[in-house]
Amino acid sequence: MVQLNNEAREIAVKVVYYGPALSGKTTNLQALYQKIEPAVRGRLMTLDTKDDRTLFFDMLPVFFRTATGLKVKLKLYTVPGQVIHESTRRIVLQGTDAIAFVADSRRSEAASTLAYWNNMLKNLEANGLDYKTLPIVIQLNKKDLPETRQGDELADLRRLIQPPMVPAVAIRGDGVVETLFELLTLCYRSLDRNLGLDTRWKIGEREFLSRIFDHVDKRGTALAQEAGPR
Amino acid sequence: MTLPPSFLQQRLPLGDLLDLRAFSDVCQSFAELYRVGLKVFDESGNKLVDVKVGNADFCGYIWTKASGREQCVATVGRVKADAIPEAPSPTTVQCFSGCRYVVQPVLYEGDALGRVVFGPFVPEELDALPATLTSISPDFDAALAAGYMQKIRRVPQGTAEKILKHFLDLVDVMVFTGHKNLIAARLHIEAVQESYRELQEKNRQLEESYAKLKELDRLKSNFLATMSHELRTPLTSVIGYSEMMLEGLGGPLTAEQREYLGIIMEKGENLLQLITSILDISKIEAGRVRLVLSEVDVAQLLKDAVATVLPIARKKGLKVTCDPGHAPRLQGDREKLRQCLVNLASNAVKFTPAGGTLTVSAEALPGERVALKVTDTGIGISEEHLPRLFDVFYQVDGSTTREYGGAGLGLAIVKSFADAHGGAVTVASKPGVGSTFALVLPVRPRLEPALTPVTPATPVG
Q: Do B367 and B445 contact (CB within 8 A), yes or no?
């Protein structure tokens, strides 16, 4: 759950990139690391113990201070996709505030994607998290490859909940910023419900998002046209 | 089930992220390179590193004057605790002595984890000792102080700031590396703990099912024991009354009636034997076997066993030999050993085709042991069945249409009785050639507490 430290006037938000092995979770974080200015992000930490492979995850901190002086610290994590990392996956998932589910959108990957999707819902329950209210966005990655799923073909992922879906080619950086934007929009609304960001802390949705996305290279993204000068 | 909170989101103090000993060495060497002092504080104001270069005499002299001491403490307090902007830029703190400090926060993931203080240094533009210093005491020796000040490095403000920035870049890498190592180690531990927790959960489930199975097994043994007993009672009457009729107690019989009664009696005996075996095995499984120990004459034992199977072996056309050898007398439960031999010999008869040979023999083995052997020239047993041969209910040919009868209890009983004597039963067999079962028994068994003899064993003489 989101950690709110009243005394230090800061909130810590945990965002997790979940998905099958090789679906592009780390690629997402690497692209974000390139696109977000150092003023609001730290180093990208990649943990990869090559010899035993029990640990594998990435972490990118993003932070800002609002006009009212509240410090917001977001940590973006990826979880290990390999099946053997079940316990690490559960530890990283614990207390998460928002999830980007990165799916390989090719038809050939449909079965393993669904398996991971269900595995995630199960692990969320094991962590006492309600996936019906948790902000979740599905990224349909690898859209540049042939044989990707369209519209109706994605019904299997929409059976229990209907998260927004964002197409992406993470390796080229396409859709990565849009995914984060979509996710943080949902995340803001969820935090607002739980903590009263707007009424209690005087942070509107617009400020929350612009504190980050004003420092993001939005060239070539859907946000570049719609946002305009801020 | 909710997992305990992870450390991943916790904020860590600077001292935990750095190896302080190694970090001190780096600071030392850095300060020596630039000949300027260096201090590092964590966010609570704890001093982690303090390297003094060149200012000891100067500051020491000022410290000898009461007012100097007082103002020095105030300056150090400002350097250490004054609020500074949470930004990657230096703040200058001016000392009343004319020296200067530059201070910058250690920023990591947007948090100020502490601060680095670079100084004191003498600003390049300082020409003479300021009045704020010379006035601290009437007996202040300005010439001496100026001499001491020579030992402190003179640096342009811009250079000092650059050096500080350079040092903070280094600190950033060290903090990042430290944090990464800490996360790797902690996550490893958490992952192991999590796996351990999962394993324990599975173990608990296994233990539960094992306990359930054991309970079921006990119930089954109880059921068998009770049922065998209940079956035996009416069966004895069936056999008894058949016998009475055969003896003519119910009036004269025709030859045909006599034959039929003979069959009823024979099959009744067979059934009784089978039920007795089941009773035996259920007693064994319930741990209720009691050995009645006495001196056993091996030759007599062999003869008794052979006599039991001889009629049926003859009927089948088998040659039976009995060779007691020179086996010594042994101490054991005569009835149970006889049953073992009868079981083995009956099997041999059952699985040996007409014209075959059955040999019951004894042999003294080294280590005060005796082997009682039953050898046949029967169909033999293939190797894959040997390990399970002595399991309860196990049968080499488990099919319902099998050629040979039996409940699969005989060998299990033999093994249990052999074990009870502290002995063993072994088998050597070759399909199509024959089998040899050997009952290896100690001459003087050492008994386990559960098998205490009813009559105490006589001491070895």
A: no
pLDDT digits (tens, 9 = 90+) for B132-171: 999 999 999 999 999 999 999 999 999 999 999 999 999 9
CB-defined contacts A:B, below 8 A: 72
Contact B179 A45 (CB under 8 A): yes
Q: Is B8 part of the contact surface with chain A (CB cutoff 8 Å)?
A: yes
| Segment A36-56, tens digit of pLDDT | 999 999 999 988 766 555 567
The answer to whether the CB of B417 falls within 8 A of the CB of B254 is no
Residue with tokens 């000898």: B64
- Backbone φ and ψ for B217, nearest 5 degrees, come out as -65, -40
Distance from C-alpha of B91 to C-alpha of A125, rounded to nearest angstrom: 49
Cβ atoms of B172 and B180 within 8 Å: the answer is: no
Please enumerate in sequence order all residues whose Cβ is within 8 A of that of B9, keeping only pairs 6 or more positions apart, or say none.
A3, A12, A14, A75, A95
Determine which of A171-175, B14-18, B37-41, B203-207 has the lowest per-residue pLDDT on average.
Answer: B14-18
Q: pTM above 0.80?
A: no
Asked if A73's CB is within 8 angstroms of B3's CB, the reply is no
State the complex-level ipTM: 0.84
CB atoms within 10 A of CB B345: 25
Cis before residue B120, ω within 30 degrees of 0?
yes
**At B165, is the secondary structure helix, strand, or coil?**
helix
Q: Is B121 in the A-facing interface, judged by CB distances under 8 Å? A: no
**Closest in B5, B6, B184 to A55, CB measured:** B184
Among A4, A49, A87, most B C-beta atoms within 10 A, so best to mutate, is A87
Interface touch B110/A12, C-beta < 8 Å: no
Separation between Cα atoms, residue B129 and residue A153, nearest integer Å: 82
Residue A31 distance to chain B (closest CA, Å): 18
Residue B190, chain A, CB below 8 Å: the answer is yes
Vertex A217 angle, CA A104 and B107, to 5°: 100
Distance from CA of A104 to the nearest CA of B (A): 27
The secondary structure element, H or E, covering residue A191 is helix A176-195
**Parallel, antiparallel, or unpaired: how do β-strands B319-323 and A136-141 relate?**
unpaired
Which chain B residues are Cβ-neighbours of A93 within 8 angstroms? none
Question: Please, are residues A62 and A40 in contact by the beta-carbon 8 Å criterion?
Answer: yes
